[in-house]
Amino acid sequence: MKKDILPEPYQIPKMGTSGLRLKQEQYNRAGFLEQFTEGIARYFKEITSTTKIAENNTHLLLGGDPREGNSERIKTMASILTAHGFTVIVPENGLASTPAMSHAIRHLKTIGAIILTASHNPFTDVGIKINTANGAPALTDCTERINELQNDVQDYLTQDYKTALTEGLIKTIDIISMYADLLDKMFSFKDMREKIEGTPVSAVFDSMHGAAGPFAREVFVNRLGLDPLMLREEPRTDLGGFDDKGEPKHPEPDFDYVSDLINQNSTNQFSIAAAWDSDVDRRLDGGSGFFLESADEFAIFARYSHLINIQSMFNNTIYFCRSTVTSHAIDLMSNELTTIFKDKTIKTVQTPTGFKWIAELGNWGVEESNGVGNPALREKDGIFATVFLLKIILETGKTPLQLMEDIWKDHGRVYFTRGEVSGSDPIEKEALINILKEAQSQIGNRFGTLTLENAGSWDYKHPETGEIAEKNAAYFLEFSDGNSIKARFSGTGSGGYTLRVYCSKFDKNYSIPKTRIVQPMKDAFDDFLQNGGFKGKSEKYTDSNQPDVYL
Ligand code: G1P
Ligand code: ZN
After folding, report:
1. From the CB of 369, is ligand 1 less than 6 Å away?
2. Closest ligand 1 atom, CA of 369?
3. pTM for this one?
4. Fold for domain 179-411?
5. Is 353's C-beta closer than 6 angstroms to any atom of ligand 1?
6. What does the alpha-carbon distance between residue 247 and residue 184 come to, in Å, rounded to a whole number?
7. Confidence of residue 17 (pLDDT cuts 50, 70, 90)
């Protein structure tokens, strides 16, 4: 073991929605990762030295997606963590999905996990996040303390990596089997496999060259006996490299980035189609020519939640959660849910953005950004969602569109799209904030074809403590005829600003072309910004490249 001095310690920024994301160049600065890790080691020492926070009070998981530099980072970090007396548990090849890590924390009773991923950001970004002993993403009291400790670091301890290995301080686990076993418990793979053998099911999956490929192969091929068409299966350090414009590809299951999957699904030959992001906590699901919007798919899951073995994981109150900027499809189903879960209290809850809020309420919830949770772990889980959809297809014999239309017929449809306004000028960002803050002064004015009827900002009142747990989690603008817009600044970027814009409108009639419904909201929002003196406009709407079934 040795101690090294940092010649010039860095000012390390605080972690955001999902850990600290920075460009490769920033993470790769000499001594940066060492300082970052030393702070984490000191934090876990601090919280475990006098209290037992987990059965294995010195065990920490360390792993992540395949992006460039992660395997070297694991070695550097393991050398520092073992020097502090921790046993570091590393998945084979360092490859892990975020949900599998969340499950492994609780399954192996460790004090937490360090997950190396910048999620759906390109390989040019690096991200590191912390999950705590309950399996969930660290809350701010933890991340802020880590940040304080990191910025105090002057020197750091290291242990020779090979020595640590031979001394058994670094252990390898098969996290893929561990995770597949969990899904097996929830879904009864044997039953599913029999059904798959009886009814030929065809599948197409896009792993986007992230961590998903080996997990998908184990679950869908080895355990369930499917023979899917696997796109971009192999994990790659460049997560697929660059697009035609020379931009690094986004390993994000969004209509902008999965053109092959869209083409394959449009052939109508696949009962199920899915893509997952680099750390496999997001998904895009569909099949038979159709794709499901995130909150809509959750509505299907809610209707069929009795099909899977999760009942014992619920408390007396089941929270069906969605982030406030997500479509309120689930809220429309409250009465139906009460009849499904007769002996439970059902609450539909709106949370701020970030899955930690949903995790602490039991993890049964959804975000519009393609994340959905399951009550068995404390993160979003992409493959869980796809297996669940497959199970429902097998049990009902219906296509995803038929399943969806059943719900829309009963409850109506929330038309939904998300866009963004982005830039790099901090003055511009300030201007945007002011326009949104002062939106109330515009009530009664007409923007595009819509009239602004109400505006403000939404605070999160915790459903259990009743406290205001998050102030100003989103701005809202309510226009005439039930057209509703929410907006908030992204917390996961690695430079500049991104204002996310969410448009939604409820209609009993579910088969109207989506563009016809959302366009007036996009126009009204742009008009509202221009009226406030802002020059830019909202763009990159998720519906732009989304195939619509009602044309
Ligand atoms: C984005 C998503 C948000 C999600 C987060 C982490 O955050 O919009 O729903 O929880 O990634 O995956 P944002 O960049 O909007 O802060
Ligand atoms: Zn992710």
Report:
1. yes
2. 9
3. 0.97
4. Alpha-D-Glucose-1,6-Bisphosphate; Chain A, domain 3 (3.40.120)
5. yes
6. 39
7. low
